[in-house]
Amino acid sequence: MQTGDSDTDRREYIRLDRSVMISYKKAGSSEEYDMTNTRDISKAGMFFFSHINYPVGTKLELLVRFPFRIGKERVKVISKIQNVRKKENLYGLGVVFIKMDKTVLSELCSFIDKLKKKMG
């Protein structure tokens, strides 16, 4: 488990505080999806809290309701846990996207660029 802010220095993309509704489970498993909101998002990943302590390297299947896809189906994204931070009874999961539809990825990048411009 990694702690501290050292991973901030290694990020290729800036994460923006943005709450996005997601459902998640271990990739390839038959378990039910859990639901949560993200704390932040970038062009390459996101951070959210889970009640499950998944180890670093675990692949998760995410169903994401991106705000730029209003009225469209949730997007299936495969991600990998880069870091885990324990906070009280929850685990903060920093994940990187490893498989996402190219069109959706392009839309995500445009969305984040627009948000960054608005923020200055």
Key features of this structure:
7 strands; alpha+beta; 6-stranded antiparallel β-barrel; globular; 19% helix; 120 residues; Thrombin, subunit H; disordered N terminus; 2 helices
Secondary-structure map:
Blueprint: H1 6-10, E1 16-17, E2 21-26, E3 34-41, E4 45-50, E5 59-64, E6 75-87, E7 90-99, H2 102-119
Antiparallel strand pairs: 1-3, 2-3, 2-5, 3-4, 4-7, 5-6, 6-7
CATH superfamily: predicted glycosyltransferase like domains
Q: What string, H for helix and E for strand, traces the elements in order?
A: HEEEEEEEH
Describe the oligomeric state of these chains in a short phrase: single chain
Rounded mean pLDDT score: 88
Number of domains: 1
Integer-rounded radius of gyration = 14 Å
By CATH reckoning, the class would read Mainly Beta
Strand count, sense and barrel status of the largest sheet are: 6 strands, antiparallel, barrel
Q: How far do the termini sit from each other?
A: 34 Å
* Beta-strand percent range: 35-45%
Based on the coordinates given, report the CATH architecture.
Beta Barrel
Number of strands: 7
Total number of helical segments?
2
Shape: globular
The structure class reads: alpha+beta
What is the strand arrangement across the widest sheet? 2-3-4-7-6-5
Fraction of residues in helix: 10-25%
Query: What is the fold-level CATH name, i.e. the topology?
Result: Thrombin, subunit H
